[in-house]
Design brief:
The chain has ten helices and 14 strands. By secondary structure, it is α/β, with parallel strands linked by helices.
């Protein structure tokens, strides 16, 4: 990271009481530098691009039904349904649900192994089927009308500013936003519950899963990553509220997606406002945060900056 910071250093300010203090560059300047190094280029969705989602389910019939009814308000994408249920309700729903807008391509039963296995199966299947954009949706998400259009538009909004969007989400938490720009936010984490990857980014994720330790982070290493990359102080990152700050706790592998993509020249973006919410938990109690509202548009950097000399 040291070389990257040196090549992208935007400015220095004179400190009357001492030597010059180096400042971190703007977030977008860091992104552009990473893209140049990795030779990645912005790409907006084009006519004819195929978009597919892996819909992962394990029981929870009522949650599953509500998620289906919400996501089916939109069309323009395919769905592969991957089920790990032990009860009869959800598999029966997969056989009998009548879609109005979304296009169900296939249903795969007995996709066992837990959340990480479901991610790998879903992404690998979508990539094998040749989709240009591949996504993940879990069966505990509620969508607002317009969610798919807003989600897909993130790749275009990023491209308009020269940003290569590798992963996008319509489920936007305030805690996860590093910077609020015009109509989108730059994210520190997206996870696996509601995400759409460009094909190259999904291929990177699948490659990383072949060596899971490459995605493994702790609460401390994850926070340090954003200090080193953007000079942002995430010590008050609210989803970590239950963890004692003096101890490092292991994160699930999906916390490693976004940092891994940044290092390879792919940004993670979120909609403003959020178009998706969680059924399983109350976000204010669970994450100590809120969903992003329209008022956050263009609000700027969301976390304190740390001068490089203080690192």
């Amino acid at each position: 990271m040291t070389a990257m910071r040196a090549t992208t250093l935007a400015s220095q300010k004179k400190n009357p009481a001492g030597p010059a203090v180096a400042e971190f560059p703007e977030i977008i300047d860091v992104l552009l530098s990473l893209q140049k190094r990795n030779k990645t280029r912005p790409r907006a969705p084009k006519r004819g691009d195929r978009i597919g989602f892996s819909f992962s389910t394990k029981d929870r019939y009522l949650f599953t039904l509500q998620t289906l009814q919400n996501l089916d308000t939109e069309g323009g994408f395919d769905l592969i349904w991957n089920d790990e249920s032990e009860e009869e309700g959800v598999p029966a729903l997969a056989k009998n649900y009548k879609f109005q807008n979304a296009n169900l391509v296939e249903v795969n039963y007995g996709v066992t192994g837990g959340a990480e296995a479901a991610v790998c199966f879903g992404l690998s299947r979508l990539l094998k089927l040749g989709y240009d954009y591949v996504g993940l949706i879990e069966n505990d998400i509620l969508f607002r009308p317009g969610w798919f259009r807003a989600l897909k538009k993130l790749f275009s909004l990023g491209a308009d500013e020269g940003i290569v969007c590798g992963s996008a989400t319509a489920r936007s938490f305030e805690s996860h936003a590093l910077e609020y720009r015009s109509s989108f936010s730059v994210q520190c984490d997206i996870g696996a519950g509601m995400v759409l990857f460009s094909r190259p980014a999904a291929e990177i994720i699948m490659d990383l899963y072949s060596n899971p330790s490459s995605l493994q982070m702790t609460t401390h290493s994850w926070q340090k990553f954003y200090v080193d990359l953007f000079g942002l102080d995430l010590r008050k990152f609210s989803p970590f509220w239950a963890y004692p700050p003096d101890k490092a706790f292991p994160c699930t592998l999906d916390w490693g997606y976004t940092p891994s993509l940044y290092l390879r020249g792919y940004a993670s973006l979120g909609t403003i406002p959020s178009y998706a919410t969680d059924l399983e938990f109350d976000v204010e109690s669970f994450f100590h945060t809120k969903y992003v509202s329209a008022e956050k548009n263009n609000a700027g950097v969301a976390y304190p900056r740390i001068p490089m000399a203080q690192k």
